[in-house]
Automatic annotation (TrEMBL):
Statement: the UniProt record of this protein carries the keyword Ligase: yes
Key words, A-Z: Ligase
Name by which UniProt lists this protein: Biotin-protein ligase
InterPro entries attached to this UniProt entry: aa-tRNA-synth_II/BPL/LPL, Biotin-prot_ligase_N, Biotin_CoA_COase_ligase, BPL_LPL_catalytic, Class_I_gatase-like
Naturally occurring in which organism (per UniProt): Protomyces lactucae-debilis
Higher taxonomy: Eukaryota, Fungi, Dikarya, Ascomycota, Taphrinomycotina
Length: 622
């Protein structure tokens, strides 16, 4: 599940960066922390996979210019349907019914009504004097007191008060400014929470995301910064808990990217990959379009990292070419390669060559955004990891992959002469995932169009509140897997990057396959290595069959056996048309909906989303 931090016109780089750092410390690896821009917020299907939307500090007028209308409508709908909103300083002004900022100051004044109106009153500022844009001149350590804080000091720069908050319906006051020099009228309320439909908005005039150590030293004379930092993180953690998130007992350490290990099923294949990677290097460095890779003869050659670069994408990636990789803590290479050989009868199949990294940024991004690698690595090459820090999903969404989630991306080549079947690859991947899980267990897993896998839950199974789940008839289902396909055309070939994430072992914050097996009383358990090998073997078989036939037709019946949408009544949200799902168009790959009077609507998978709880299909915006 995602925690999205808005990063668009008007946002403060300092606040955005601090949000990433603080939320990563408090929430990973349970949640994926990532940015979302205005275009994605307005156009992409982010809501169902998001537990929290954060509007950071900055200037709220540009927020209005970018999001008024469709953007705000989406935010409000997200909260009404159970989403959570955290507004910090400008993000709190923005979510109030009215803003009154430095009224009467010709240089600074911003006043006016706002669309979201989560706080149905006025946010008035600045609470304290001295504010200047793009400056720390008015920044200070404000002291807060209240139900979740007792004399805690939090970074402040330009925030407001929530005027007469006690008189505004449904508002819960969480903290007040304890400092006596509040310069505006209307009280001293600094932090509030308001229910919005099934969700809520928590608005703060202060910046709990920013460490007080960033203030000028003369503003904190003689203070114990370590003690202040501990108190800040505790305060922010309490805010997040009020929004329904599960917070780490102790702040997680800053994530460190692991060494990538080159692995192959045979010595000959390892040598071929080693030679290929070496040929791409200038000395010992491959400079990709997005990442820089330093080649190592062995893992022990990696230097002690001296970089304090916060941007993980900008950090150098280390790639060991050793033919004898170390014992990996989360993946048994011997079991994997023996399983792959057993299922395929081949040593040159999909997945016979791979890079493994315990912790990476995003397996999909490392391939997709580094064309030098993508255009040279062979068909079937896999990038596998135990933990992704910024994994990518459909529509710009992320999947977080803590230990226990099988996360990989694989290069597949698809001939241009078979371009008409390319659209069916996402269906092949979903079908292969379902069949692999069913082959290894008794679990009833199914496909939710277009690319999600859901498991049927046994009676009495308690679903975590944040798990993507729905009820169909008497049955309850929860999401356990998702996939993504990105495609580049190069030298008469479609080069696909197939990304898959499957929750095998980790029970938080959703549901793991083995947790369901345990609840069923089954003696079977699924291991990562066998599941990956089986999935790749099935996918290779399906891909070859589709290419030979030149059609998805021979696989369609099996696909329909595994999906959740047979004859399902639906409503097209944008038009209000009602209809029923009748299948997949075997020529164009679209979802076919019969809307009556002989009319059928074909929906592309890219951009449309299926709300199973409501029977709604949200149409892609052009």
């Amino acid at each position: 599940m995602n925690v999205l931090i808005y990063n668009g016109p008007g946002t403060s780089p300092k606040s955005v960066k601090a949000c990433h750092a603080s939320l990563t410390a408090l929430l990973t690896p349970r949640y994926a922390i990532r940015s979302i821009n205005a275009e994605t917020l307005i156009q992409e299907p982010w809501q169902a996979s998001t537990v929290l939307l954060v509007m950071p500090g900055g200037r709220d007028l540009p927020y209005c210019e970018a999001l008024n209308g469709p953007g705000n409508s989406r935010i409000a709908s997200y909260l009404r349907n159970g989403g959570q909103y955290l507004g910090l300083c400008a993000g709190a002004y923005y979510a109030s019914a009215r803003v009154e900022f430095e009224a009467g100051d010709a240089q600074l004044e911003v006043t006016g009504d706002r669309e979201l109106k989560f706080f149905r009153g006025t946010c008035r500022g600045c609470a304290f004097p001295g504010f200047m844009y793009n400056s720390e001149h008015g920044a200070r350590a404000a002291t807060l007191t209240g139900s979740i804080a007792e004399n805690v000091r939090i970074y402040y720069n330009g925030g407001g008060i929530f005027v007469d908050a006690e008189q505004v319906p449904d508002v819960q006051v969480l903290a007040r400014y304890a400092d006596t020099d509040v310069q505006v009228t209307g009280g001293n309320v600094a932090v509030v929470q308001i229910p919005v439909g099934k969700g809520s908005a928590l608005l703060s005039g202060v910046h709990p995301e920013i460490a007080l150590g960033t203030l000028d030293a003369d503003k904190l004379p003689g203070e114990d910064l370590e003690k202040l930092e501990t108190a800040r993180l505790l305060f922010l953690g309490r805010l997040l808990e009020r929004l329904g998130l599960k917070v780490n007992a102790t702040a997680a350490e800053r994530p460190t990217l692991s060494t990538l290990h080159l692995c192959a099923s045979t010595a000959e294949q390892h040598q071929a990959c080693l030679s290929l990677l070496s040929s791409l290097a200038d000395g010992d460095t491959i400079t990709g379009e997005h990442d820089t890779f330093q080649l190592l003869a062995s893992p022990s050659d990696r230097p002690v990292d001296a970089s304090d670069e916060d941007d993980l994408d900008a950090q150098r990636k280390y790639l060991s070419l050793s033919a004898s990789p170390p014992v990996l803590p989360s993946f048994d290479l011997e079991r994997y390669f023996s399983s792959l050989a057993r299922y395929t009868g081949s040593q040159t199949s999909l997945g016979s060559k791979l890079l493994y990294g315990e912790t990476v940024t995003s397996s999909q991004t490392l391939l997709d955004k580094n064309f030098k690698l993508l255009s040279n690595l062979p068909h079937g090459f896999v990038l596998l990891c135990a933990h992704q820090l910024s994994g990518r999903g459909r529509g710009g969404n992320a999947w977080v992959s803590p230990p226990g989630v099988l996360s990989f991306s694989m290069i597949m080549h698809h001939p241009s002469k078979a371009s008409h079947t390319l659209v069916f690859m996402q269906y092949l991947i979903s079908l292969a995932t379902v069949e692999a899980i069913r082959d290894l267990s008794s679990l009833e897993v199914h496909i939710k169009w277009p690319n999600d896998i859901y498991v049927k839950l046994p009676a009495g199974f308690a679903v975590p509140e944040q798990a993507p789940a729905f009820v169909q008839g008497e049955n309850k289902f929860v999401k356990v897997s998702g996939s993504l396909v990105s495609t580049t055309y190069w030298q008469d070939t479609f080069m696909m990057i197939v990304g898959v994430g499957i929750n095998v072992l980790n029970p938080e914050p959703t549901v793991a396959l083995n947790t369901v097996l345990e609840h069923l009383g089954s003696d079977k358990r699924i291991d990562m290595e066998t599941l990956l090998a089986r999935l790749l073997a099935v996918l290779e078989h399906y891909h070859a069959a589709m290419l030979q036939e030149g059609s998805f037709r021979s696989l369609a019946d099996r696909y329909y056996q595994r999906w959740l949408h047979h004859d399902q009544p639906v409503t097209l949200e944008e038009t209000g048309q009602q209809g029923r799902v009748v299948g997949i168009d075997l020529q164009h790959g679209t979802l076919l909906v019969d809307v009556g009077r002989g009319e059928r609507v074909g929906l592309q998978a890219d951009g449309n989303s299926f709300d199973m709880m409501k029977g709604l299909i949200r149409l892609k915006r052009s």
